[in-house]
Amino acid sequence: MISTTINLTISAAHRGPFDDRLHGHTYRVKLWIKVLGSPKNGELLKDETKAKLADLDHGLLDDVLGRENATAEGLAMEIHKRLGAWKVSVDRDDGPGCEIEF
Length: 102
Known about the structure:
Elements: E1 2-15, E2 22-35, H1 42-52, H2 61-65, H3 72-83, E3 87-92, E4 98-101
Antiparallel strand pairs: 1-2, 2-3, 3-4
């Protein structure tokens, strides 16, 4: 089994946890995916990944994840759910991020 990594960015908005202020972040995402046999071309795998996460990029995370889950951790969990990545790292452009292994 081969493990490959994919790096991408997701720019998205959400409302603050303590007020209703709409604001956004650029999230740097790195995910680790296990592939059976020969890995696909890296760019092809990245394009397929971006297509599966398209509704997260330049969207309102509250609508996709729910307001209570519109966090770096919630984003990492959603990426894992959609892609089956065994490890997901999400860093914000201006604050804390997270790294979760499954």
